[in-house]
Amino acid sequence: MVEFKLPDVGEGMHEGEIIKILVKTGEAVEQDQPVMEVQTDKVNAELSAPVKGVIKEIRIAEGETVEVGTTLLVIEPTAGSAKSETAATVEKASPRPVSSQPFRTLATPYVRQLAREMKIDIEKVSGTGAAGRVTEEDLRQYASSASAKPVKRSIAPASNNEAAPAPSEKTSIGMQPSASTQQIERIPMKGIRKKIAEHMTKSVTVIPHVTSVDEMEMDQLRALREQMLPFAQKRNIKLTFLPFFIKALVIALKEFPVLNASIDDATNEILMKRFYHIGVATDTADGLIVPVIKDADGKSIFQIAEEISRLAELARVGKLTREQITGGTFTVSNVGPIGGLQATPIINHPEVAIIALHKMEKRWVVREDEGVIRWMMNVSLSFDHRLIDGVTAVRFTNRIKELLENPTLLFAEMV
To answer: Which residue intervals define the domain Lipoyl-binding in the entry (predicted)?
Structure first.
């Protein structure tokens, strides 16, 4: 028999949530056939059968969170299998991103859980979200059209056939639960939202955050982008301001390498990194995902723009691989298109800094003792005060500011 265990795919993974079991006990499977969908950190992955055989036992259930090394399935190898029929244990597997098969329904772990509670077969629901993703509203519309009754986790008043709840010290005898109490719905903190919460809690617990805010004049960068737009459009490239920021970041990181470092808390060592993998915080239906542009220092502005678009689309449809969301050395969060003047962004541990870009707007500013109108934008830099001093952080921001306010310097400094 072959025991198929939840594999350790590295990068600090300790557990996974079983989203969907694709096989049944007694079913014959081929080697490399998808048998299970699992949520690991911020990536949905399909686990494949390590051998050809018959499913003899399924030891976990959908919705269950299990640790790495937990036996998921027991498979009896059949003739032609690469494994012999002697006892074997399989602990390694190569998870594949879900949605690689077009007939599979796209949905977040929360929506899948809600579908199970509402007793809806999610494969029958038409999705209206990005790339056909099934949303919570899609489930409720489906339930309504099918005259189904959704399962709500709410506190309802006792019916005439039930005993009324015993009065507490704060509740008068005969008083019914308030209307606001009846409207409470309890939703499990799980899946990607749970991982985000754990990661953010660790970051603010371990790292002493300090945030520095500055403003930049953007008129020259806006003019340069306008000049480059026709060339980008010919190559079908969406050219935003973000690629210019990333190039300026890389130049500044090379001059202030401590902001591209990390701290090994176990060994109390500073890890100085000579590569530049820039994470780009991306808002998705699943929550905030941070795909990473690897070796950004070796890519042109157009190449970075293409990479941003490609990774953002993969993030929106849930097709990012673990490799694409790990290994970052510095993160940028572009909230400008949404708005906001400043923030205190939380550092993406184990990195030591993160910069947030805010909305661009026209403001009155003083230049050579005269009031003029300029396109201005604020930036917020959060940094790890264990490693980075305030003076260093401000000088780092000043360098980025210099490069972006005089964008021709970007090309002079590129290597």
So the answer is: 1-76
